[in-house]
């Protein structure tokens, strides 16, 4: 089936495939089991997250869609995805967003080498300090800012052999680098597409109050902090995502009625 970017059939097919590929965890016990498995990969493994912004990006970029689909494990991130899944009559499962889940993964790697590739100083150094002193004590972190050529990250990973690589370069760059790293590395490791996680750990960006996180409004808090950078993602992107979600749900309903008839 053709997935040409920019055509309605293209983005709808891509969204259906992404929804089908999302791993959904239904309980706290399931989350613990997931964390246990992620802490002991038997080969290079790529973990990615899909939120409303990722879905919008996949709708217009077949290259980004392919990079996401190439990940070994894709998790649901955010309330927008929960809305989409409910519109499609599918249980959304837990909101395993990277900002909350990745520190838990880091803790499971305490004592093992970790790589942070992304953002820039001083936030990168501050994130490394937070990990080495608080989140994953006894781990040594190798770091590199997020504006290098891909070959530089390959060289650092081959030299230091980190058990966990966290990429904080933003979409779609981190997903593209993750796929290349997995193909090049010949030892078991977990490669995480972490978005803004290094900035959060390095205190560049603060988290929203707990009540906003629990009610799915963290995006509004982030927009208030960085309105210029995030205007297109949230003010333009959120309504666009909802319009596409409703259109996809309507299409699925028509197909169900047609099959029943």
* Strand residue content: 5-15%
Order of helices and strands: HHEHHEHHEHEHEHEHHHH
Provide the low-confidence segments as ranges: 1-8
| Major beta sheet summary | 6 strands, parallel
Q: Kindly give the count of domains.
A: 1
C-alpha-based Rg, rounded: 18 Å
- Strand segment tally: 6
Measure the end-to-end span: 25 Å
- Counted by DSSP, the helix tally is 13
- Quickly give the structural class: alpha/beta
Structural account:
- This protein is an alpha/beta fold.
- The chain has one domain.
- It is 57% helix and 11% strand.
- Helix 3 (52-60) crosses helix 13 and helix 8 crosses helix 9 (173-184).
- The longest helix has 34 residues, at 227-260.
- The radius of gyration is 18 Å and the shape is globular.
- The two termini are 25 Å apart.
What topology does this entry show?
Layout: H1 8-21, H2 28-38, E1 45-50, H3 52-60, H4 62-69, E2 73-76, H5 79-87, H6 98-108, E3 114-118, H7 123-135, E4 141-144, H8 150-160, E5 164-168, H9 173-184, E6 190-193, H10 197-201, H11 210-214, H12 218-225, H13 227-260
Parallel strand pairs: 1-2, 1-6, 3-4, 3-5, 5-6
Helix pairs in contact: 1-3, 1-4, 3-4, 3-13, 5-13, 8-9, 12-13
Notable characteristics:
261 residues, alpha/beta, six-stranded parallel β-sheet
What can be said about this structure in brief?
The chain has helices at residues 8-21, 28-38, 52-60, 62-69, 79-87, 98-108, 123-135, 150-160, 173-184, 197-201, 210-214, 218-225, 227-260, and strands at 45-50, 73-76, 114-118, 141-144, 164-168, 190-193. With 261 residues, it is α/β, with parallel strands linked by helices.
